[in-house]
């Protein structure tokens, strides 16, 4: 199985539909802190909806339009990273992340996204990687900074969550940076 070490006891691996049970258990632990930032967290509430979430990313990967990876810590799925979108022809992708509280503060997200960015630039030849986050998601914008991304701007009231519109920061890093 494909696996990339991230830190002591931590690894990055593909997250696929056959892992729906493990993903659901993880979402049950993480949903409260992930749902405000990632739309599918609140929709992945049973095996069927969880499998659909994972299948959506499997379908994106089959079209070379996105990918989903899990982060395991000591054998337990604790978070992940993804290409929310992936446009090889246009040379642009968006990365996203999530992590349950028990695994926070270990640098796992930063390490995992570095793997994706490196692969996208070096192997796939992309030019630009974007990071989108709500302006009130300080932890997320801090990761973007640690990755060397620049804040390109803010999309006003572009993200709807529970009938409230939120501003979204757009960060980026270029292959030439």
TrEMBL record:
Stored Pfam families: Acetyltransf_3 (PF13302)
Cleaved signal peptide residues: none
Cellular component, GO annotation: cytoplasm
Matches recorded under InterPro entries: Acyl_CoA_acyltransferase, GNAT_dom, Ribosomal_N-acetyltransferase
N-acetyltransferase domain boundaries: 10-176
Molecular function GO labels: protein N-terminal-serine acetyltransferase activity; protein-N-terminal-alanine acetyltransferase activity
Protein name, entry field: N-acetyltransferase
């Amino acid at each position: 199985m494909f696996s990339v070490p991230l830190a002591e006891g931590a690894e990055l691996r593909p997250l696929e539909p056959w892992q729906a049970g493990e993903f659901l258990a993880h979402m049950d632990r993480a949903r409260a802190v992930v749902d405000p930032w990632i739309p599918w967290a609140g929709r992945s509430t049973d095996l069927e909806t969880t499998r659909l979430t994972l299948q959506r990313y499997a379908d994106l990967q089959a079209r070379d339009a996105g990918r989903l990876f899990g982060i395991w810590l000591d054998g337990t799925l604790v978070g992940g990273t993804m290409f929310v979108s992936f446009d090889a022809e246009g040379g642009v992708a968006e990365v996203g992340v999530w992590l349950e509280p028990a695994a926070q503060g270990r640098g796992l997200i930063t390490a995992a996204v570095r793997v994706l960015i490196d692969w996208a630039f070096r192997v796939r030849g992309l030019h630009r990687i974007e990071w989108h986050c709500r302006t009130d998601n300080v932890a997320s914008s801090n990761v973007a900074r640690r990755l060397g991304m620049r804040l390109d701007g803010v999309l006003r009231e572009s993200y709807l969550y529970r009938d409230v519109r939120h501003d979204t920061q757009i960060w980026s890093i270029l292959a030439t940076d």
